[in-house]
Amino acid sequence: MAEGADDTTFEEQESPPPQPAGTALEKLANSVNSVFIGGGEDQNDASHPEYEGESSLFAQAVYATEFLQCSLSCDPSSRAASEMNSVLNALRNAVDAQKQRTDTLQNLYPNARQLPPGANLRDLPLPDTNKVLACLRMAEGK
Fold first, then answer.
1. How many CA atoms within 13 Å lie on the side-chain side of 66?
2. How far apart are CA 8 and CA 22, in angstroms?
3. Burial tier of 84 (Cβ tally within 10 Å: 0-12, 13-18, 19+)
4. CB–CB of 1/7 below 8 Å?
5. Of 33, 58, 62, 125, which is least surrounded by CB within 10 A?
6. Helix (H, G, I), strand (E, B) or coil at 109
7. pTM to 2 decimals?
8. What is the maximal distance between C-alpha atoms in the chain?
9. d(C-alpha 90, C-alpha 39), whole Å
10. Closest CA to 66 of 100, 31, 97
């Protein structure tokens, strides 16, 4: 510390006491490593539905929610637990809302039509050139 510096500008924060080996948080960390590194558990297990076809961001939100729930339940006496409960509730609400949202293609794209079986985009007729140019002009003007 430099001479003349005020020692009272920063409060020293107590660090949490070291946890003994084999705590619930350590077990959680081991299970996280086994899921993401590929050891131990089958990644296609039905107990991990968030990793099967959902968006990466949603899967990460589900994982973060579960991780926070477990870490707060394992160590409820920590100072961060009370602060994190409100954040965890908001995250849980967002995850639950996303799980309940069941948008179908018809809801997302009401004017879309399905391709006939066996057809692909190359089989579709090209749109009228004048209509395409009119749409491009409208898009350019915005």
1. 14
2. 38
3. middle
4. yes
5. 125
6. coil
7. 0.30
8. 81
9. 32
10. 31
The residues spanned by each domain of the chain are 24-34+41-106
* Backbone phi and psi for residue 3, each to the nearest 5 degrees, phi listed first: -65, 145
The candidate with the shortest Cα–Cα distance to 131, out of 139, 123, 141, is 139
Structure tokens at 77: 């006496």
CA distance 106 to 90: 30
- For residue range 31-66, list pLDDT tens digits in order: 554 544 444 444 444 444 444 445 677 777 778 778
For helices 56-74 and 79-100, give the axis angle rounded to 10 degrees: 140
Task: Count the neighbouring beta carbons within 10 Å of the beta carbon of residue 65.
Answer: 20
